[in-house]
Here is the input.
Amino acid sequence: MTAMLKRSLTEDAQDVFRAIALIELGARMQVLESELTLSRDRMIRLYREVKGVSPPKGMLPFSADWYMTWLANIHASLFYNTYLFLKNEARCSHLDALTKGYRLYLEHCRHSETEPVLDLTRAWTLVRFFDADILQLTPCCRCGGKFVAHKHDLQQNVVCGACQPPSRAGKTKKAAAAAKQEVPTIAEAA
Ligand SMILES: [Zn+2]
Here is the structure.
């Protein structure tokens, strides 16, 4: 019991609030476990309370290649530019930048009447790939926005997915245009 009292009540309460916010946004257990210091049992109980169901089991299935498909790349780039702005310019902590950035991303999808492609766990995994130097931001030579790319991909004279949609992407062109509007604004602010 005494070991559990090492952390202050305030710190503990803050972690509970953070856990609730992450669960509401759709985080999987792996995200909670790596971001917060609450016991696994408590996080499972919080998860059940917030979601009304047990957390899904199993590994996170994502690879860095997922972010390279056309539409996922536009959404990932929008989220990551927002995340970086919040972290570097607005001086948010990693966790605040993740939750606030993800909420802004959802808001942006709602405004532009686009289905969100990136879930919270994928957004979190994206940040991990950047931290692990697996991904980088590459400037688009047409719009100047920065998009998500593999670490060793070309850095010059490359065009982002929003500027160069695949020919069969007609239906989602509107979504791309809407996402594109936002990216340079954020990039300029940064
Ligand atoms: Zn572009």
In short: Residues 130 and 136 are 6 Å apart (CA to CA). Residues 140, 142-143, 145, 159-160, 162-163 surround zinc ion (CB under 6 Å). The mean pLDDT is 87.
